[in-house]
Amino acid sequence: MNSYNMSNGKLSLNSVSINLGKTPVLKDISFSLEKGNTLTVVGPSGCGKSTLLNVLSGIIKTYTGEIYMGSTLLKEAGLTFGYVPQNLGLLPWKRVKENIMLPQKINKNKKIDENEVDEVLAKLELTDLLYRYPSQLSGGQRQRVALARVFISQPDILLMDEPFSALDTLTAETSRELFLDLWRKYRPTTIFTTHNLTEAVKLGKNILLLDKQPATVLRYVENPLFGNQDYDEASFVSFKKQLMSWIREGANKKKAKHA
User: Fold this and answer.
1) What 8-state DSSP symbol labels residue 195?
2) How far is it, in rounded angstroms, from Cα 42 to Cα 197?
3) Which helix (H) or strand (E) holds 26?
4) Which one of 29, 142, 217, 220 is most buried, counting C-beta atoms within 10 A?
5) 136-185: per-residue pLDDT in tens?
6) In b/e form, how buried is each residue of 20-32, taking b as 16+ CB within 10 angstroms?
7) Is the pTM higher than 0.85?
8) Contacting residues for 233 by C-beta, under 8 A, at least 6 apart
């Protein structure tokens, strides 16, 4: 990770708004996330979840409001980012090993621990797939390659854009567990977009609920079930129902406002 001192770091967004052209996409987004925690962002398709990640990563630079890590503007903090887009971002003409090591090829100053690389590859069961091309892999295998790439690079901030949405139910569940195993080891500050409430509850220590575009914050809640291996199914279902209730409440308020 970068040498920037994140020991007291809290990622904070203060009234962040963005228009794409003349279309308002995000409006007055404010929240804070403690270093090393996970945040799942839930909202309807097209509400601006991907746009939020693009703002955080620096891909989109034109917005109003402020984003800080601790007391330093995020864009000046010198942090490293890992980004898993919806399409996973694998280069089809590169073999698995080349795709995984791409961040190190781009940034030759980045040092990696070969033992850490071997451990991640073994954990994700990729050791025997290193010389295949992405087209020769299943969806779940391609997903694991994308996970290996970001965790081997050990970013300060990890951004994941609905990475498991195209997987079947069983493969997606396995990928979530693999993600959590690696996250617990490396603890990057992680923001993960999804429209799946089950996924949001399983992966987010904090959950941000957005309404439809232009997206505003419906709720920012701490997940009482995250990291608790002993919760029962009734508690899980009840919390999901509460989240859905807040989403419907927000949608109804927005509909009434524009009626």
Assistant:
1) S
2) 7
3) strand 23-34
4) 29
5) 999 889 989 999 999 888 899 999 999 888 788 888 888 888 899 889 98
6) eeeeebbbebebe
7) yes
8) none
